[in-house]
Each structure stands twice: as structure tokens, then as C-alpha cells.
Design brief:
The structure is a single chain. By secondary structure, the chain is an alpha/beta fold. The chain has eleven helices and eight strands. The chain has an eight-stranded mixed β-sheet with strand order 1-2-4-3-5-6-7-8, with helices on both faces. Strand 5, helix 4 and strand 6 form a beta-alpha-beta unit.
């Protein structure tokens, strides 16, 4: 109870020639860990870890809302365009936030589409980071659903999105956190989940780049939930096998949104992941 340790602020960055006002939250001190939310959601997914004093004692957790998400407004003139996230814009946004916040080689922790882009950055911009924690991440997952259902005049896109992702939440998740997680999708802006899924289900460029990743310089640790239907343990294993030196952990009782759907169940896996990152072993063990 009481006032939480999380602080929130705004920073303006330039992406694709346009100014974007980005909302970010942070908590803790020490090694910077930049945390990326899933498609159609926002930084609230990371609130439990950011309120964990043992984790933040030696780690400065930073999470930001992508443009169009949460408290980050769309760019000026958004009403005249269709939101479709691309790999290039995603990467440019992350690097712009890192520069604006003055983060020096942070650990990058991303879930779902955030895990996918973490692996892209491991291949394309490894020198900007000290390590990668890719959660519910795989090389490529084509859509097994029609993403246009999430932005139609005759259907509530947020409720449709929540219905889809509800199947990816573990039955072991506490009921209150299941519904807190689903609320983020229910409250998502019009067309935002669809625009994110366009990136997630159509860009297969990572497949040919996995061999570039040098885990001797920047370690890669993949975490996957056994109840994830979108990125199965088999998908994550296939991806880890394509990255020499990558490590993998399977969470038997978790699903696709582990940090928000079951924070207590995810906590030990996240601490283990932090211990695999440079300069983090002793600190993470102390936090455990």
C-alpha cells in the first residue's frame, strides 16, 4: 500500500522524421534494463517487477509505451493514416529512446513482439546493448487468425483482442492478474493491436539474421511459457537452436504474458535471466 517507487515521465524523440512524445516509467538503480511491452499493451505489464525492491536494488528498470500505446500519443496527423508497425520504425524508436535517456548499453528485455525485436537488435545493433532477454520470442509466427477482425466497424477491437489473447494466459495465473492483463487489450486504441500484429505476423526477416548473433559478445536468453499458443516452447527451442550459444528456459505454469499474468511465477525466471547478463550474476543472486 502507499506510494509506489515507480516514477513516470515523458521524453520527446524523433522517429522517421517526426516528433514523438514517449511516456516512460522507471524504478531502481544500477544496471539499466530496458523493458518492452507486448503487442496492444503498455508498460503496466512490468509494474510488478518494477515494484520489486529486491530486483530494483541493483537494476534500474525502465519501460516505455510505444507510440500509439498507453500514455504515448500517436504522432500528429494520425487520423489520416493507418497504423502498421514495421521492424525499421520499431528499432528506430527503441534506439531513439536509449539515446534520449542516456542509457549506456542496457540489457534489453522484451516480451512477444518485444522479444522478437530484441532478437532483431541482437543481430543488427548488438553493440548498443549488453545482453538480451527475449521472452515469448521466436524467429517468425505467421498469423493463424485474421488480424482485420481487430479493427472493424461492427466489432469492438479491444474486446476482440482480449478474447484472442485470453487463450494464451495460463490457467495457473491468478484470476485478478488475468483480468488486469486482459484489460490492457480491452483499452487499446483503435487499430493498435492490429497494427502491431502486422509487424509480428508478416515480417519474417529475422529468420535469415539469427546466424549473425554473437552471444560471446552479447548473451541471449530466451524464456517461454508452456501455455503459450502463439510462441510455443517448440518455436522458442527452434529459435534458440539457430543462435549459437543462446540459452532457453521453459516456464511450466506460465503463458504468453508472464510478467503481468503471473508475476510471482515469472519472478525467479527473470532473476535467473538477469544473472546471465554481464555484471549481473552476483547482483541477481543477491536479489533472489
Amino acid at each position: 500500500m502507499g506510494i509506489e517507487a515507480i516514477t513516470g515521465r515523458y521524453v520527446t524523440v524523433e522517429v522517421e522524421g517526426r516528433a514523438l512524445r514517449i511516456y516512460f516509467e522507471e524504478a531502481g538503480q544500477g544496471r539499466p534494463v530496458l523493458c518492452l511491452h507486448t503487442a496492444g499493451a503498455d508498460t503496466r505489464q512490468w509494474r510488478h517487477l518494477m515494484n520489486d525492491a529486491e530486483v530494483t536494488a541493483a537494476n534500474r528498470l525502465i519501460a516505455f509505451d510505444m507510440p500509439w500505446h498507453g500514455k504515448s500519443l500517436p504522432p500528429e496527423g494520425f487520423q489520416t493514416e493507418e497504423y502498421l508497425l514495421t521492424t525499421e520504425a520499431y528499432i528506430e524508436t527503441i534506439l531513439a529512446v536509449i539515446d534520449a535517456l542516456g542509457l549506456e548499453r542496457p540489457v534489453l528485455a522484451g516480451c512477444s513482439m518485444g522479444g522478437r525485436i530484441a532478437l532483431q537488435l541482437a543481430a543488427l545493433h548488438p553493440g548498443r546493448f549488453s545482453g538480451f532477454i527475449a521472452i515469448e520470442a521466436s524467429d517468425f509466427q505467421p498469423a493463424w487468425y485474421d488480424i482485420d477482425w481487430f479493427h472493424r466497424p461492427d466489432a469492438h477491437g479491444g474486446e476482440m483482442g482480449a478474447a484472442l489473447v485470453s487463450a494464451n494466459i495460463s490457467p495457473h495465473a491468478p484470476d485478478v492478474e488475468r483480468w488486469n492483463t486482459l484489460w490492457m487489450f480491452m483499452a487499446s486504441g483503435p487499430g493498435v493491436f492490429r497494427g502491431d500484429l502486422s509487424f509480428y505476423t508478416k515480417d519474417d526477416s529475422l529468420i535469415g539474421r539469427l546466424g549473425r548473433i554473437d552471444t560471446a559478445k552479447t548473451p541471449v536468453h530466451i524464456i517461454v511459457g508452456a501455455y503459450d499458443l502463439t510462441c510455443t516452447p517448440e518455436d522458442a527451442q527452434r529459435t534458440a537452436d539457430a543462435i549459437p550459444g543462446a540459452t532457453l528456459a521453459v516456464m511450466d505454469e506460465l503463458g504468453h504474458f508472464p510478467m503481468s499474468e503471473h508475476p510471482e511465477g515469472f519472478r525467479p525466471f527473470f532473476i535467473e535471466a538477469l544473472a546471465k547478463m554481464p555484471a549481473g550474476k552476483a547482483r541477481a543472486e543477491a536479489a533472489a
